[in-house]
C-alpha cells in the first residue's frame, strides 16, 4: 500500500515509517518539522534502505494536503501529526485545538474527496481519564484534565461520526499507552526540545549527567510503592502495531489499546534502567504533578485477537535502547 504518514519525521512516526517500509509498503511523509528535523528522513532511508517521499507542509493547510492527494495514489493515511505536550496545551489551548483537531478534519475531508478509505489515528490512553485500570476499549471516555487530551477525544469523535455515514471508510483509533525506547540502531529515538516532560527521556538525561537528578512526582499514590504506574511500550512494538492495524483493517470504526498490559511504577522503571545499563540514576521524591493519575495500563486482548499483534519487548530492552540512543545522539 501507498501510505501517507503525517508527522512521519517525529518520534513514533519515524519508527512506524521504517516498520511500514520493512513490510513492503511505500511511504509519503507530510510534516511541518515543528517538533522534528529533516535529518530524520535520511535516517529512515539509511535504516530501511528504501526511498520515501517527503513534503514539508502543515497538515492544517487544506491546499497543501489537497496537492498531495491530487498528485499521488494514496491507499491509506496514518495521522501522527500533532502537538503533544500536556502542560503546554493548558497554556496554549487554541493552538492545540486548532492544530490537532483541524488537521484531522482536513485529512478526513481529503479522504472523502479522493476516495481514500483507510485511516489510522494516533490517539492516547489519556482519553480514558481516571477510569479503573486496566483500561478497556469499551469503557466510556472520561473528561481529561487538559486540552491535549480533549483534542484526541474530539478527533476520535469526528472520525467516528464520518465513518458512521460513510460505510466504506475504515478507521482505526489507536490508543497508545507510554511509548519509550528507540530503534536498535541507535539512530532514531525520542529527542524532546528543552527539559523533558516525560519520564524516560528525563531518566536518560540524568544518567548522562545532563540533568541533576530525577524528581519523582509523588510517592503517596495507592500503588505498590506509592509512585505512579504506567504501561510503558517499546516504540518498535508500537510501530508494528500500526502495520498490523493497517493490514487488518475492515470497514467501520475500530478502537485498539496499544500497550503491554503490564504496569510499571516510577521506581521500578528507575531500577530497571539502572540494572539494564549499569548506571546510577539519582532521584528525589517531590510533590505530585497536577493532573497525574495513579495508575494507567491497558487491557490488550482486543488487539491480539483482531490484529494478531501484541507487544514483545520487555522493560529491560526499552531501557537499553533508550540509553543507547541517548549516548549516541544527544549533546
Ligand atoms: P512528535 O512530536 O515526535 O511527532 C509529531 C510530529 O508531527 C512532529 O514531527 C511534528 O513536527 C509534526 N507536526 C505537528 N503538527 C503538525 C502539523 N500541523 N502539520 C504537519 N506536521 C505536524 O510526537 P510523537 O511522540 O511521535 O507523537 C505522535 C502522535 O502520537 C501525536 O499525535 C501524539 O499526540 C500521539 N501520542 C503520543 C504519545 C507519546 O507519549 N509520545 C502518547 C499518546 C499519543
Ligand atoms: N514522572 C516523574 N518524574 C518526571 C516525569 C514523570 O515522576 O520527571 C512520573 C509521572 O508522575 C508518571 C510517570 O512518571 O507517574 C509517567 O509520566 P510521563 O510524563 O512519562 O507520562 P504520562 O503518563 O504522564 O503521559 C504520557 C504522555 C501523554 C499521553 C499519556 C498516555 O505524555 O501525552 O502518556 O498514557 F497521553
In short:
The protein is an alpha/beta fold and about 325 residues long. It is about 40% helix and about 20% strand. It has a domain at about 1-180 and about 235-260: Rossmann fold (3-Layer(aba) Sandwich).
Count of DSSP-assigned helices: 11
CATH class assignment of one domain: Alpha Beta
The structural class is: alpha/beta
The largest sheet is: 7 strands, parallel
Estimate the strand proportion: 15-25%
Question: What string gives the helices and strands in order?
Answer: EHEHEHEHHEHEEHEEEHEEHEEHH
Side by side, the strands of the main sheet go 3-2-1-4-5-6-11
Distance between the termini: 38 Å
Low-confidence stretches: none
Gross geometry: globular
Q: Could you give me the name of the CATH homologous superfamily of one domain?
A: NAD(P)-binding Rossmann-like Domain
Average per-residue pLDDT, rounded, comes to 97
Percentage of helical residues? 40-55%
Cofactors, ions, other ligands: nicotinamide-adenine-dinucleotide, uridine-5'-diphosphate-4-deoxy-4-fluoro-alpha-D-galactose
Gyration radius, in Å? 19 Å
CATH architectural group of one domain: 3-Layer(aba) Sandwich
Provide the CATH topology of one domain: Rossmann fold
Total strand count, please?
Answer: 14
